[in-house]
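Dear support,

We are seeing what looks like truncated structure output for some complexes. This example has three components. We would appreciate it if you could run it in full and send us the complete token output so we can diff it against ours.
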Amino acid sequence: MSQAILPPLAGDGAAQNTPGPDGARLATARRRASAPLTVAISALIVLVVIVCAVLHGVINPWAMEQDTQLGSVGIGVWGHALGTDQLGRDVLALLGAGALSAVAGPVVVAAGSLVIGLLLGGVAGYRGGLVDGVVSRYADLVLALPAILLAIVVAGVLGGGYWVTVLVLVVLFSPSDVRLVRGAVMEQMSRPYIESARVLGLSGPRILFRHVVPNVMPVMLANALLNVSFALVAISSLSFLGMGAAVGTADWGLQLADGRALLGSNPLASIAPGVAIVATATSVNLLGHWLADRFEKKAVAR
Amino acid sequence: MSTTAVKAPGTKVAASISWFVARRLLATMLLLVVLSFLIFSLLYLAPGDIAKNLLGTKTVTPEALAAVREQYHLDDPFLVQYWRWLSGVIGGDWGTSIRSGLPVADEIASRAGLTVRLIVLGFLIAAVVSIPAGVWAARRRGTWVDRTLVSGAVVGVSAPGFAVGLLLLFVFAVTLRWFPVYGTGEGFWGQLWHLTLPAIALAVGLGALVVQLTRAAVVRELEQDYVTFQRSRGLSEARVMGTVLRNAAIPIVTSLGLMVTYLVGGTILVEVVFGLPGLGTQLQQAVLFKDVPVVQALTLIVGLVVCLISLAVDLIYLVIDPRILRKAVAK
Amino acid sequence: MSASTLTPPAGPAQDAVLRASDVSVSGPRGVIVEPLDLELAAGKTLVIVGESGSGKTLTARALTGLLPEGVHASGTLQLGERTLSLAGHGLRELRGGGITLLLQDPFTSLSPTHRCGQQIGWAVGGERSERGARVAALLAEVGLAPEVARKRPFELSGGMRQRVALAAALAADPAVLIADEPTTALDVTTQREVLDLIDSLQAKRGMALLLITHDLAVARDRADEALVMRSGRVLERGPAARVLFEPEHEYTRSLLAADLGVEAAEALAGASRAEGVSQPNAVVRSTGESGEAGDELLRVTGLRKSFPGQAAPALAGVDLSVMRGSTLAVVGESGSGKTTLARCLVGLERPDAGSIEFLGVASGPRRAQIVFQDPYSALNPALSIGAGLSEAAAVGGGSRSVEDLLELVGLPASYAPRRPVALSGGERQRVAIARALAVEPELLILDESVSALDVSVQAQILRLLASLQERLGLSMLFITHDLSVARAVSQSVVVLRRGKVVEHGSTASVLFTPQHEYTVALLASIPGRAAAAPHSPAGQPAPVPEEKD
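Here is the complete output from our reference environment:
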């Protein structure tokens, strides 16, 4: 135990006392205790948003319709807990309807980026050589470009709305996933158990899918959660600037932009969607960090 | 692996440095060429007829269209057009804005000052607050101080600049009336007063990023054996932290590129939410109006700045991390 | 080291520099090190011996107040006139001039961006010019040139870095030096130099030394007094001459027996060789040289391999052959090319030139299998033991079931559904051997397969390999940096240095009558060997292998 609790002592010495698994578990046990509360709250927030998104159009199909006479209403008016916006739409109902746009796009961005990452990064890491060179240079190139700027410019000039924005973000997000998968696969490839599988004569696809991918997936899933969070921030930013969701659809970024004019009369019209974006993005981000931490510690414990 | 002492002759080191710099310069040039190509293609990416787009709000007549085709050489092959555009840009001819009809260069020049001031102020606030906060969190890791700062940083990176800006506006400008809601102000203090809230909005996200980076770097260094060894030698805690900060500075400085990328996006959002007439709002309006020459010019400028900063970071890296030189020599 | 081992234990000496009593360490899960007392005398060496997990490192850290977070010490420490509690922060004042801790890994114990002279100078007061002279003097004391002061750690070799660290440790003139595995990360030849240097500095400065080591042989060479620890408890203590040469406690005896430099050779010889072996040391089975001499299984000729970016080739024309049913040991220090050789043999690297001929009947993966060094990454963490083994058996067309394979390596069949994380290092290495044997290979390559294990586990695995060879008629190629392991397992030896074979022949001839100077140097630097003879008191049995039971 003595060696194990200390930070890992590096070096390629022969009889080095490799930190045993006990110490790593010990450290995990100490830190895990602090996680649950924030994680539980985050999970609850994410759950509410997902439910709203899934039930889009079921709970309040009239969310986009004008409910009061044109003009804003303050807080606490009967039937409008958060008041109404400029067009007389109920802010809370609009918030519920906007959940779909806050879930669908970011999930597609993260999933698309993950698939591209696994395919390109997996092949590049496994094959190496020329394939790796080409894929890596491509990833370097896209990563060197200022992503948000390109998203704004390309999505804006294309003017195609929400899904074009999502597509542009998939292209801009994927290189970091490609790099991550490539690195993880390469790191796996040099592991003795993968080398043993190669010496045993297992086929390439079998090694890749049975031995490499299962060990890479946990990290990638945690990273995908982080991507969902960043994509939500990016998509709502673009919607806010008028380059994402089309005018007249329910979207938090758009709702915030519309509600700005009412900062004096009904500030909640713009603050509520702002809080929704920050709370959802933070929750997903925390869940991603928590998962990544857990996987990392599990890996250390191995 | 035992590494033997290598007394690298000065010439060899100098040669490898210049080779490294040359390679980075070449890569930067290549990146700029690719970026400029993409930017030029924007003209063709925009839906609709190019000539009509370029006419903007002017009345569309066959003569006007023909004049535009003539003016922009739209009948030439794509690559010839690209080359003509690129040489124009390098020569200082940035074209004219479709919307205002004014030279793009003048439009940009009149707005750049505000954006630069906003970015510098935001960056300073972020650096002054976040680096000490990150170091503090690292030194107190595991305590409530650390947990609070880390959670705050997660909220910070997850909060888009416009949401933060709006909240600040509501609390400090609309409700408390400490700061103005709108405008840019006169004179140094007036401008500073007007720019404070936007700069804080910009600094929140950047600062959160810097807290995370700093904390991670300092924690990593604190876990190194040399820290234990220095303490075991009876060296003062100030000396130990001095060494730690010197070594932790390397990853922080090299993340400057990441910070700049963040600032680019953040500035646009903050300027729009505060209604500041800087380059960010100009870009937003130009994109929405499909004022392609302005969009092209602004994108190219930002791309150039980002590339140059990442080049500068690599060169600083060479200076602050002596190990890099050795790797460069090995290559 | 002087005549100190000859003198009887001084008892509670008056000249004790440091006295620690009731030292205990506890972590979040309870007590890790149970209360113990320590006493260090000026100019004397106390060695704490123990395997990993024994609590030896935490004890050392407790004495300097440098325990990791979440771990606490209690007890009192008396250094000179002063008495302090180990629980508080007061120990900070003693660090430097009182006690200094020298760490295991010279590659990480110095700041990478600061120059060596600067780092040493931090502990030196006074004017700038005086400091420079003092740093140069300290460097000279550890046998380094003054130019080293201007170098950064990454420009120096491991041995030089540890010398710099030693100079830094001595800068404040500590009364007590605690050295925690100070040479474990170094090559054997360097290891000896650094230990000798510490010895001479200790004598010159009259410093008390607390040496922490897992290596019994090192302990025997250097100790005046010894303390054997296991699982946080002191099992045995007393003068080194008794504890390390004639232990009373069962565990110390088993450690001694497991210490391959001393006894495992005989243990193995007894387990797997015929009784007719003439000398106890010559554990060579004669098969390789007698009747079946022509029965060659593997022939390697002129093997070359270079890696881009490296000046020297990893393999510069290697010739060797392995006889059927016998074991060839390939011996060399890190960087000798021995691992590259193994990787070429199993097809993980493609040699630049030369030939590898398998003269057996098998093809593909059944020709050769390999077991690597690190047991913790040897098995896929995502697969159960059984799944991994049955996959290997299926691909190689082997006839053994998972149960058979586990039985073969001495593990119960109930291990099949377990994940690697539930197994100890030794057990994992057994599973790795079983997986290699699943395809029934003609040649088994062991690349440092026991060097990451504790000595007692090492001996078990070596015994297992010997019995497997007996049962299955396996041919083995055993790659190791450890000459005592080579001596224990092989019939013939190849000594590799910088990608070239410098000596080869039967184990007996190479390791007992070496011809090449490099082999001689390697042999001389094995701890417990060279220093043992002159120090053994006249009346006592010399601690050389021949005379142990």
